Amino acid sequence: MFEAVLFDLDGTLADTAPDLGESANLLLAEEGHAAKPLAMLRPYTSQGVRGLLKAMPWTGSLFAIGLLALIGLPPFGLFISEFALFRAGFAGHHPWLMGAALVLLTVGFVAFINHLNRMLYGSPPENMTNGIHNGWRIVPLLPGIAILALLGIALPAPLTTLLDQIIAIVTRT
């Protein structure tokens, strides 16, 4: 049994910048580059990321697509499951529960979009170099985005069965 649940709200509860800085320095060392001080890396973490589309257009675009998929916007698969669950909830005569869930989903959606907007369109830090120096590093992201889009268009049979079972549970009275 769980004794506690901890949520890190983007650095609100815990300062993860030192851990991210250490990870970045490990990667730099693997690539044969010198380590960077935490003060230089901190602006690139969490709230400090700005101007991603200007500095790294491909990475910024794929990051935006991934976040929109995470939110569940069409054509990504999460939208279909959200739609099915809400449909089942309203069909099961739970309008207050579904209304509350829609409000919470809207709050989360607005928060994600607001954060994404600042990250993509803000002004990049002055010492940040523009461009992606090795475009091959983003290639592994492309199949993931394609799979997410395909799951939004057609769900595999096992996933459809699972959603039907969830709908049956939600609509039980």
Task: Summarize the structure in words.
- By secondary structure, the protein is mainly α.
- α4 (57-71) runs parallel beside α7, α5 packs parallel to α7 (141-153) and α5 runs parallel beside α8.
- It is built from eight helices and no strands.
- Helices cover 62% and strands 0% of the residues.
- The chain has helices at residues 17-30, 38-41, 52-55, 57-71, 77-91, 95-121, 141-153, 157-171.
Annotation keywords:
8 helices, elongated, 173 residues, mainly alpha, 0% strand, single chain
How many strands, what sense, and barrel or not for the largest sheet? none
SS class = mainly alpha
Low-confidence stretches: none
- The N- and C-terminal alpha carbons lie at a distance of 28 Å
Helix content: 55-70%
Helix-strand string: HHHHHHHH
Instruction: Name the shape in a single word.
Output: elongated
Number of strands: 0
Computed Rg: 20 Å
Number of helical runs?
8
What is the mean predicted local confidence, pLDDT? 76
What percentage of amino acids are in beta strands? under 5%
